[in-house]
Amino acid sequence: MKKYYLLIPVVFVFLVSIWYVVNKPQKSNTVFDSNQKLLEVKVEGAVTFPNIYYVLSGTTTEEVIEISGGFLENADVSPINLLEKLTSNKTIKVAFLDNNITSKININTATLSVLMQVPGITEKRAASIIVYREQHGYFKKIEDLVNVKYIGNVTFDRIKEYVTV
């Protein structure tokens, strides 16, 4: 019986060793090159989240667009080289297919689809403008847009050249 007591720790150590070999942490194949630069990339226009993003040099335009939430339905993707590897700070401008804004859009009369033609106005923002307009009446000045949900000072600065009352 005493012989079996000595065998139990040996079996335990053996089983733990096998478990460790099977479950040992894998080394990452990802190598971070300390020579890679951090780039500032500004994404504007017909993307879900236009903003400034910080990425490593060598990141492709497609990856940055993916980070920004992807293209909107009315994005003109034809002039964009998605395979381009970024090597310096850049601005990526994604045009709207319906970007025929020849005159300013009146925020007091515009429909949802018309508001969405303004660069920086997403469907959610356009709907919020309409809801605000229905609840509070016509806008007195374009600066009143900052009172609308989902529109802050940054968004206002981006859209103010396209709208009027």
Mind explaining what this structure looks like?
It is a single chain. The N and C termini lie far apart (95 Å). The radius of gyration is 27 Å and the shape is elongated. Strands 2-1-4-3 form a four-stranded mixed sheet, with helices on one face. It has a two-stranded parallel sheet with strand order 5-6. The chain contains five helices and six strands. The longest helix has 22 residues. Strand 1 and strand 2 form a beta hairpin. The protein has two domains: 59 residues, Outer membrane lipoprotein wza fold like (Roll), CATH 3.10.560; 60 residues, DNA polymerase, domain 1 (Orthogonal Bundle), CATH 1.10.150. It has 165 residues and is α/β, with parallel strands linked by helices.
List keywords for this structure.
165 residues, elongated, DNA polymerase, domain 1, alpha/beta, two-stranded parallel ribbon, 6 strands, Outer membrane lipoprotein wza fold like, 33% helix
Structural class, from secondary structure content? alpha/beta
Low-confidence stretches: none
List the total number of helices.
Answer: 5
The portion of residues forming beta strands comes to: 15-25%
Write the H/E string, N to C.
HEEHEEEHHHE
Q: At CATH's second level, what is the architecture of the largest domain?
A: Orthogonal Bundle
Q: What is the topology, as strand order, of the major beta sheet?
A: 2-1-4-3
Instruction: Write down how many β-strands occur, each being a DSSP E stretch of 2 or more residues.
Output: 6
- Principal-axes geometry comes out as elongated
Cα separation of the termini: 95 Å
Please tell me the total number of domains.
2
Helix content: 25-40%
| Highest-level CATH class of the largest domain | Mainly Alpha
The CATH superfamily of the largest domain turns out to be Photosystem II 12 kDa extrinsic protein
Q: Describe the biggest sheet?
A: 4 strands, mixed
The CATH topology of the largest domain, please? DNA polymerase, domain 1
Q: Roughly what is the average pLDDT, rounded to an integer?
A: 83
Compute the CA-based radius of gyration.
Answer: 27 Å
